[in-house]
Write a structure and sequence with these properties.
With 399 residues, the chain is mainly α. It has 17 helices and no strands.
Length: 399
């Protein structure tokens, strides 16, 4: 894979590299780090698969499971927690821990992955409080990031970690989805916004652009806080902030320029711009849901699948090599699961608004597009090894 241009490199070495004096003692031993990665990635995969299964059950899809199996019901009840904490929270925690190179930083993804396992096993209380522990540790990691580099994007990362802690605390205290979901989504949305702000930090923008972004994200947090106390006002404000954030990203993100490029840069831009369109849809639907319109499925999945999963698809070719030591051979085949995801969302959220069977079919195709993306990543990893792998044994003997 060719080196990425500086404008889209997600991990500048200057930001998160540890100080030279503590670089040696901060790193985990290679074998221990490898074992920890394998364990956490296995738990991440478990949370993802269980979360998808739970989402399918909630959408009315029949799964081939044993009649007396208890885990499908638990997966359905904990669908959001598994996807946003056990899966995405752990992945983001691993990525941040690898970046800061501190042993203690792995406490966050370890706790969140174990929390997802507890939820799946039916231990809701311990699982929820492990999520709180994970968020506290993650908040500390992001405080380290801010200490190393005080910049707008690092402060946003810290604020996003605080939103995750707020959501996990409300979940552990037994409050419903109306209180927890806005905070969980705020964590993911602010993390993405911070990453995009960092990646485009060299772009020339209007002087008021950064202040406008901060105002929009402050409105998002206020909307999340109000959602439990004044659901209508909080929901409308939250939805408006999402829609305004989509507008800001569409206007000021570098994706509107790199979509004219080639290769990986264009693919990432297509993922981002498509995600921003779904973010705008989610904002309108979120506000509409608060006003009593039947748009809850649109609000949640335009945001969770249309926006967030599009961001995951776009950044996977550059993030996976960093957190899993897996290199990918990029090719046009990466567009196939992306197109499948957006088409399935149109079916689910468009046709599904008028026909329940279309909603169910769209949900099944949502899952199929995620499976197709996983297969694409595995194929890209195999293709890279075939193209850049170790030389044949005979050649090594004669060298």
């Amino acid at each position: 894979m060719k080196p990425l241009p500086a404008a889209i490199n997600p991990r500048p070495a200057s930001r998160l590299a540890p100080q030279p004096a503590d670089a040696h003692r901060a790193a985990l031993p290679p074998r221990a780090l490898a074992a920890l990665r394998v364990l956490m990635l296995a738990l991440v995969a478990l949370s993802l698969l269980a979360g998808i299964a739970g989402g399918l059950l909630r959408a009315g899809v029949t799964l081939p499971v044993l009649p007396d199996a208890a885990w499908p019901g638990r997966a359905a009840l904990s669908h959001a927690a598994l996807m946003m904490g056990g899966f995405l929270g752990t992945v983001i925690g691993i990525e941040r821990a690898v970046a800061v190179k501190l042993r203690a930083a792995f406490a966050a993804p370890v706790a969140s992955s174990l929390g997802g396992l507890c939820l799946l096993l039916g231990h809701t209380g311990p699982g929820a409080w492990l999520g709180v522990a994970a968020a506290i540790a993650f908040l500390g990691v992001n405080a380290v990031v801010v200490r190393r580099q005080r910049a707008a994007h690092t402060w946003l990362l810290l604020a996003g970690a605080g939103a995750w802690l707020a959501g996990n605390l409300l979940f552990a205290l037994g409050l419903g989805s109306a209180a927890t979901m806005p905070w969980w989504f705020a964590f993911l949305v602010m993390t993405i916004a911070a990453e995009r702000l960092e990646m485009t930090r060299l772009m020339r923008r209007r002087p008021a652009a950064q202040g406008l972004l901060q105002a929009v994200l402050a409105a998002l947090l206020l909307g999340a806080a109000l959602s439990a106390l004044a659901p209508v006002a909080g929901g409308v404000l939250y939805g408006a902030a999402l829609a305004l954030l989509a507008l800001w990203l569409g206007m000021f993100d570098i994706a509107r320029r790199t979509v004219l490029a080639h290769g990986l840069s264009r693919y990432m831009a297509v993922c981002l711009l498509g995600g921003y369109a779904w973010l705008a849809v989610a904002g309108v639907a979120w506000a509409g849901t608060a006003l009593g319109w039947p748009l809850r499925d649109t609000a949640l999945h335009a945001l969770g699948l249309g926006f967030i999963v599009s961001m995951v698809m776009g950044h996977a070719p550059v993030i996976l090599p960093a957190i899993a030591r897996v290199k990918l051979q990029f090719g046009a085949f990466f567009y196939v699961p992306l197109v499948a995801l957006h088409a399935s969302l149109v079916l689910r959220l468009g046709g599904g608004a008028f026909d329940v069977s279309l909603r169910t079919a769209g949900a099944a195709l949502n899952a199929a597009s995620l499976a197709l993306f996983a297969a694409t990543v595995l194929g890209a990893a195999a293709a890279w090894r075939l193209r850049h792998g170790a030389p044949p044994l005979a050649r090594r003997k004669t060298s």
